[in-house]
Write a structure and sequence with these properties.
By secondary structure, this protein is mostly helical. 75% of the residues lie in helices and 0% in strands. It contains five helices and no strands. Helix 1 runs parallel beside helix 3, helix 2 runs parallel beside helix 4 and helix 3 packs antiparallel against helix 4.
Length: 96
């Protein structure tokens, strides 16, 4: 239990530091892995939101959306939760 918590804390730090440093690809790869591996890993959309807050202002908007990466992260998060519920039948009742 403590090893999983320690791993989650380390991955949270990597996720948020990479979001602050501008490595969007690392945020999404680590986020996808963490959402699949851990229960209720809501840090992924939060890290994408942090990335958008830090880097959305000076760049050109994509499809008119300021929070483009947050929207993509929420869609990926929802798809992965849905897939996890299909792969692991009893996960949906235990996770939420």
């Amino acid at each position: 239990m403590k090893n999983i918590l320690l791993l989650r804390i380390i991955l949270d730090i990597i996720l948020f530091v990479s979001a602050l440093l501008g490595a969007w690809w690392l945020v999404f790869l680590a986020g996808i892995f963490c959402v699949w591996y851990f229960k209720r890993f809501v840090e992924f959309p939060l890290a994408a939101f942090a990335f958008d807050v830090v880097y959305a202002a000076p760049r050109e908007r994509i499809f008119g959306l300021e929070l483009f990466y947050s929207l993509i992260a929420l869609v990926i998060f929802a798809i992965l939760i849905f897939l996890k519920s299909k792969v692991r039948k009893d996960l949906w009742q235990k996770s939420f």
